[in-house]
């Protein structure tokens, strides 16, 4: 995150606050918060009628559990100490030492507590993204353990390494709003999950409510303006650039996916348009404040093409990634980081660097190595973690529970009478 990591000493001194920047960041925080319910609707519409509440609950429960973990130790592990390392320390556990009058160093008009809240919303949605891969198959107790451990051992270390002064940040890796930190590692964790959990035993006929998917897509797209433009951490020209680039990438990716589906599946499918737009949003995330609008448009087209064929390949290989988390978020986020290494332009953001097209092959190599390394770690750790969780409590539901549907068998509720 451009503003929230590289230049910020989050123990800044007291100062007069800039009400405009503070108000904007509170709005951006609210927009990112809205993305998690949006994700719940997006995923809820994609599953069958008997599993709607179970998948939605996995998103909503993260809003509570992750907030508790973030307040107690998460924020401190990400942004306290650990310069040049893998993880921070617990000096600011329970927000210890942070006064309400503390301002962010380098951004003296912004209260530290606003950054705490903004970053918390990123932490909430990231593990929720993974749940679309193993829908209809995982016990709720196992998911709660998974949620906590994954945040502690995957998400928090990468926030620190990329945005909190850690190893990758010191190496010169850039990630404007979460290509590595959110999408790549969540997508690869999703792939590891489906490898461990296995295929669904009960086949579903397809999305039970595409209108719900459309509602979720609209909320995600709307919230993504806070996700990307808010990552500048203030209102300036780069904020506007990131906002526009976000919309351009989604708007080019959606129709690209639609046209591909029309050609290969013989119908212009609404679901393809929606999925493509989300792929474009994921792909532009790491680059939104570092590239030109023309580059963002190209990134959108490439996101539509590459993610479409990633999903096609997944289907051919028989991977039961139920809601295409790997193909959309994993591949989209990874591609976005690599394309940042290609298209980064110092002239649009002096806080950035030039990429491969502007003569800086070293930056391209750093971005590529960082995202591939992060993806490999997320995959391996997630797979091992699921095996360990299974020693404590069964991860997968029984065949009977899957047949009945998780809403009724695990939660005793039904979405539709």
Describe this structure in words.
- It is a single chain.
- By secondary structure, the chain is an all-alpha fold.
- The chain has one domain (2-411): Ammonium transporter fold (Orthogonal Bundle).
- The chain is 67% helix and 2% strand.
- It is built from 15 helices and 2 strands.
- It has a two-stranded antiparallel ribbon.
- Strand 1 and strand 2 (107-111) form a beta hairpin.
- The protein is globular.
- It starts with a helix and ends in a 6-residue tail after the last helix.
Topology, pairings included?
Elements: H1 2-6, H2 19-46, H3 52-79, E1 103-104, E2 107-111, H4 112-130, H5 140-163, H6 167-171, H7 179-197, H8 210-229, H9 237-265, H10 270-284, H11 293-317, H12 325-343, H13 361-392, H14 399-404, H15 406-411
Antiparallel strand pairs: 1-2
Q: Residue-averaged pLDDT, rounded?
A: 94
Largest sheet: 2 strands, antiparallel
CATH fold name: Ammonium transporter fold
Helix content percent band: 55-70%
Name of the CATH architecture: Orthogonal Bundle
Q: Which series of helices and strands comes N to C?
A: HHHEEHHHHHHHHHHHH
Label the overall shape: globular
Task: Kindly report the name of the CATH homologous superfamily.
Answer: Ammonium transporter AmtB like domains
Uncertain runs: 3-7
Order of strands across the widest beta sheet?
Answer: 1-2
Count of separate DSSP helical elements? 15
Overall tally of domains: 1
Rounded to the nearest angstrom, the distance between the terminal CA atoms is 44 Å
Helix/strand class: mainly alpha
Please give the number of β-strands. Answer: 2
Please write the CATH class name: Mainly Alpha
Which range does the strand content fall in?
under 5%
């Amino acid at each position: 995150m451009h503003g929230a990591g590289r230049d910020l000493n989050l123990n800044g001194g007291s100062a007069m606050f800039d009400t405009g920047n503070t108000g904007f960041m509170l709005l951006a925080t609210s927009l990112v918060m809205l993305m998690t319910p949006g994700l719940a609707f997006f995923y809820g519409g994609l599953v069958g009628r008997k599993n709607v509440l179970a998948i939605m609950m996995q998103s909503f429960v993260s809003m509570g559990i992750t907030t508790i973990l973030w307040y107690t130790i998460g924020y401190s592990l990400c942004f306290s100490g650990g310069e040049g390392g893998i993880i921070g320390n617990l000096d600011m556990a329970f927000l210890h030492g942070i006064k309400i009058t503390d301002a962010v160093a380098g951004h003296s008009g912004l209260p530290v507590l606003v950054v705490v809240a903004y970053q918390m919303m990123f932490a909430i949605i990231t593990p929720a993204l993974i749940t679309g891969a193993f829908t209809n198959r995982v016990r709720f107790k196992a998911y709660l353990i998974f949620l906590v451990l994954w945040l502690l051992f995957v998400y928090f270390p990468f926030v620190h390494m990329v945005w909190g002064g850690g190893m990758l940040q010191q190496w010169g890796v850039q990630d404007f709003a979460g290509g590595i930190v959110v999408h790549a590692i969540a997508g690869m964790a999703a792939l590891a999950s489906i490898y461990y959990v296995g295929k669904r035993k009960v086949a579903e006929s397809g999305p039970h409510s595409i209108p719900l998917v459309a509602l979720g897509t609209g909320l995600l797209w709307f919230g993504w303006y806070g996700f990307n433009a808010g990552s500048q951490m203030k209102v300036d020209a780069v904020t506007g650039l990131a906002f526009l680039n976000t919309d351009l990438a989604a708007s080019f990716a959606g129709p690209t996916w639609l046209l591909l589906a029309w050609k290969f599946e013989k119908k212009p499918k609404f679901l393809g348009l929606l999925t493509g737009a989300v792929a474009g949003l994921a792909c532009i995330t790491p680059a939104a404040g570092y590239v030109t609008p023309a580059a963002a448009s190209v990134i959108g087209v490439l996101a539509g093409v590459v993610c479409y064929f990633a999903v096609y390949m997944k289907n051919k290989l028989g991977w039961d990634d139920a809601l295409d988390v790997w193909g959309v978020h994993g591949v989209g986020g990874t591609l976005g980081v690599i394309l940042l290494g290609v298209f980064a332009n110092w002239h649009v953001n002096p806080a950035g660097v030039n990429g491969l097209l502007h003569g800086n092959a070293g930056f391209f190599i750093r971005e590529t190595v960082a995202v591939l390394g992060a993806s490999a770690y997320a995959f391996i750790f997630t797979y091992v973690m699921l095996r360990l969780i299974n020693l404590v409590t069964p991860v997968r539901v029984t065949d009977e529970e899957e047949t009945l549907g998780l809403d009724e068998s695990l939660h005793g509720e039904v979405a539709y009478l």
